[in-house]
Amino acid sequence: MATEPLSQKEIEDRLRELPGWSLDDNRIARTYRLGTHFAAAALVVHVAGIQDELDHHSDLTLGYNTVALTVNTHSAGGAVTDLDFELARRVEDIAPGHGAS
Ligand SMILES: C[C@H](O)[C@H](O)[C@H]1CNC2=NC(N)=NC(=O)C2=N1
C-alpha cells in the first residue's frame, strides 16, 4: 500500500466514505463512545491487535467510556497516507461489534 502523502482533496474524498472521521491537525481522527469503561477497554485491545497486524499504529486514548484514535504516517513525514485510511476502515469494521458509536 502506498505511503505517499495524500493531497487535501484525496483526504477529503476518503473522509466522505468514513462518517465520524475528520482531519485534525494533519491526522485523521475519530472518537467512539461505548456503553461501559470495560467495553471501551476491550475495543482498545482489539484495535491494538489490528495495529500490530498492519504494523501501523494510532495514538489510542482510553477514556471512561470513550476511545479516541488519531493517526498519521511517521514514515511519510507525518502526512496522511493510504495506510491511515486502511487502519480507519479496519477499525470501522469491528467497532459496531463492540457497541461503539
Ligand atoms: C518499524 C515500523 O514498521 C514502523 O515504525 C511503523 C510502525 N507503525 C507506524 N505507525 C504510524 N502511524 N506511522 C508509521 O510510520 C509507522 N511505522
Automatic annotation (TrEMBL):
MF GO annotations: 4-alpha-hydroxytetrahydrobiopterin dehydratase activity
Keyword rRNA-binding: no
InterPro entries associated with the record: PCD_sf, Pterin_deHydtase
Record bears the keyword Protease: no
EC annotation from Swiss-Prot or TrEMBL: 4.2.1.96
UniProt cross-references to Gene3D superfamilies, sorted A to Z: Transcriptional coactivator/pterin dehydratase
Record field: catalytic activity: (4aS,6R)-4a-hydroxy-L-erythro-5,6,7,8-tetrahydrobiopterin = (6R)-L-erythro-6,7-dihydrobiopterin + H2O
Pfam families (alphabetical): Pterin_4a (PF01329)
CDD domains: PCD_DCoH
Swiss-Prot/TrEMBL keywords: Lyase
Coiled-coil regions listed: none
Family label: Belongs to the pterin-4-alpha-carbinolamine dehydratase family.
Protein name: Putative pterin-4-alpha-carbinolamine dehydratase
Species this protein is from: Streptomyces albidochromogenes
